[in-house]
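Hi there,

I know you've been waiting on this one. I reran it after we fixed the sequence typo, so this is the corrected version. Both the input and the resulting structure follow.
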Amino acid sequence: MIASRTRGWTPGIASVVLLTAVAAGCGAEDPALTANDTVTDNLSSGGGVPSTKASAFFGDIAILNSTDLAFTTVMTTQIKTSNRKTLFINPSLECGLFTQTTVRSKNGNKDTSTASATIQMQVLVDGVAAQPGVVIYCSRTQQLSATLGGILQSCTDANGDGTITAGECLLTDEEISLLLSTMDAASFNFGAGVGTGVHTIAVQAKISTSTSVQTGSAEAFATIGKGAVVVTEQRL
C-alpha cells in the first residue's frame, strides 16, 4: 500500500509524512489466516506470526524539510523465533542533506557562516537498542569564510585637501553564497540476541541541524526518502 507524498524544499517548514509499506516474511503459512485476514493486520498485532528465518519491510518514507526531529520510528517489522537466536538487522535509507551558507564582508573584515545537518539511526528490538547503538547515516558541516574589500559606491573629498582617502569612500558588502544538496543511500548492520517468541523490530531516525553566522546567513535541512529493512536469524 503506497500513498502519495509531497516532494520539494520549503525552507523553514518541517514536514513529516510516514507512509505505509509492505512487510514480508519467509516461513510456514499460518493456518489461522482466513480469506478475510490480512498479513498487515497479523503483523501489527503480533498474532498468527509463523516462525521465520527472515523478515523484511519495504516502502516509501518521507521526512521532508526537517531541521529537528527526535528519534522517530520510520520502519517496523516482526519476526518469530522458535528458540534463542541472534538477529541480524540491515536497515537501508535514502539520506538527503541541504546546506546553504552566505557571507558578507567589506573593509577587509573576515566573515564566516556555518551550516550542519546530520541523520542518525538506531534499531530497537522489543524496545531495546540493538548493537552497536546509534549510528550516523549521513552528516555534513559546510563552512564558508571570506575576507572582502567591499563594493565601491562613491568617494568625496570631505576635508577639501585635494586628496581622497579610503575613509572618504562609501563601500557596501560583497557577498558570496554556497549551496549543497545531496541524496545518498546508506545502510548498516545491527545485531541483537533474542529468545523464543515474536519480536518487533523498529528502525528509528533522528535529524539534527545547526547554523552559525556573523554578518551572513545559513540554512540546513535534512530529508529521508525510501527505505527497507531486512532481518535474518542465526544461531551463534
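Quick highlight: Helices lie at 39-45.

Best,
R. S.
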